Amino acid sequence: MNALPTTTAIDRDHYFSLVAAYHGETTREQDAGVGEVHPEWAIGLADGRFLFDLITENALALTIEIGLCEGASAVHMAAAHAVSGFGLHFAIDPFQHEYFGGQGVRSIDRFGLTSWFRHIPERSDRSLSSLAAAGVKFDLIFIDGDHRFDAVFNDYYWSDKVLRDGGYLIFDEAGRDCPTKRVSSFIQNNMKNYELRPGPSRFYVYQKITKDDRGFGDMIDF
């Protein structure tokens, strides 16, 4: 892994103007028919601010998301590292160019955040397992990729392997009767080393308090 960048930092005022421009340009790209723009999938400005504040206020250095899409969450999180002056944000998305026309990567580049960002063009199970094998630990993981139950659970399973104790695990699409809700129910009922934290209504925000101490075969219905 490359050394964490410590240059090209931006100030908070720059961040505020940057993200306002991002959300405006996403709307214009939709109107212009650039790639497959899906604004209904993207997080909103307040959701992005939550991620930004969580990173900057807790001095989180390594962050990663599963599912880059148009880059809404990536812009906020990479900008958080730029404002902090340290850290790096990763985004796993094997379909970034095939399905989204490179919009997420292009947004990062357009707003001058390339130094604070790395795109991983592989499946999440392969990339996360490789990171786990390398002993990499992240401070924040944002899961917003394939929303089928088995995929969300698999993303949770591997994310747990690369999340440091004290780190944050965040799921998008909370508050809906969807697979993410079932995975969250599993965590709340079985993973006592995770605590649910306050957050935006569309997020499940967990903090990993300590290591998993379940016994072999322990299971509570969810």
TrEMBL record:
Family annotation (InterPro entries): SAM-dependent_MTases_sf
Pfam families: Methyltransf_24
Highest taxon, organism lineage: Bacteria
Listed name of the protein: O-methyltransferase YrrM
Species per Swiss-Prot/TrEMBL record: Sphingobium lignivorans
